[in-house]
Predict the structure.
Amino acid sequence: MTAAHLPLLLDLHPDDYPLPGFRRRQLLEWVFVHGVGDYAQMHTLPAELRAELAAGWQLNPFKDIETFRSDDGSVKYLFTLPDGRQMEAVYMPYLDRKTICVSTMVGCPARCAFCATGAMGFGRNLTPGEIVGQVLAVAGGEGIAPREIRNLVFMGMGEAMLNYDNTMLAARILLHPDALGMSKRRVTLSTVGIAKGIRRLAEEDDLGIKLAISLHAPDEETRQQIIPTGSANSIDEIMAAARDYQAVTGRRITMEYTMLRGINDHLWQAELLAERLRGMVSHVNLIPMNPWEGSNFISSTEEKIQAFYDTLEGLGVDVSVRRSRGKDAGAACGQLALKRPGAASGHAGA
Ligand code: SF4
């Protein structure tokens, strides 16, 4: 069996690593604390054990990694998988929080009309190790320890709720104290609005990660124009699931809203959005659209975004404007892979 055909070690839950107690923790430390991607360098493990591991388990999920650095400090990572497919992660080292946006799929079946990934269609689900491996690879590329990356959003390519089990296992690996040891308050799952998934997430008691919903419109007609595939539920169903989620977890929900000129930036829509959110503990993130070649949409003007913001705030909604990162490094998620033949497809349009 060649290395590329071996099972991926990172696909395992940390409790299932193939070594007994003390050795298991040593192996986990090499992988997740020191970020070592080569068994040969794990010198506290006996040579024979290292050889056994190398013969049985592949450590690196990626065939090739390219980086694209933006002037604002963010870095896009384009990963080529062993099957030749490509997907991306974005590293944002700004302020005091090193944040990574990871993909959960190659491409995406949701086909949101403003999204470069949606335009490419669905390639395949990523495995848990291919999701977690993005954090290790980015840490390696940046010359930092994996645990220095403290914030993670499942907001890259793909709809995480449609790759639910793999994403949940990835989240458990991220949070596990012997693995990446991330704080559950610093891991956010973003969904385009899969009501069933939102309800399932509410029942994952041990996880406690945060939820963001890419709503993008408060009225059904506009939303169907933006998210036409029917992967997502109606706004009424999404809001009902969100309220149930909040009733169970007590956690605040973030609503992502990509600002599209002339489409969803009318002030009546701000009023309707405020109405939809009444009684819910939420935060609205307004995201100027990050333009990409071939898109039928452009971002709302600064004035429109400000007016939309003012209307929401005036109606008591907790709101902020998120500035897009990495415009000169390949722009929105999906755009790097989109430009390459054979690649499938990125999330929130920013
Ligand atoms: S915005 Fe997210 S859910 Fe929609 S097509 Fe893009 S990656 Fe998929």
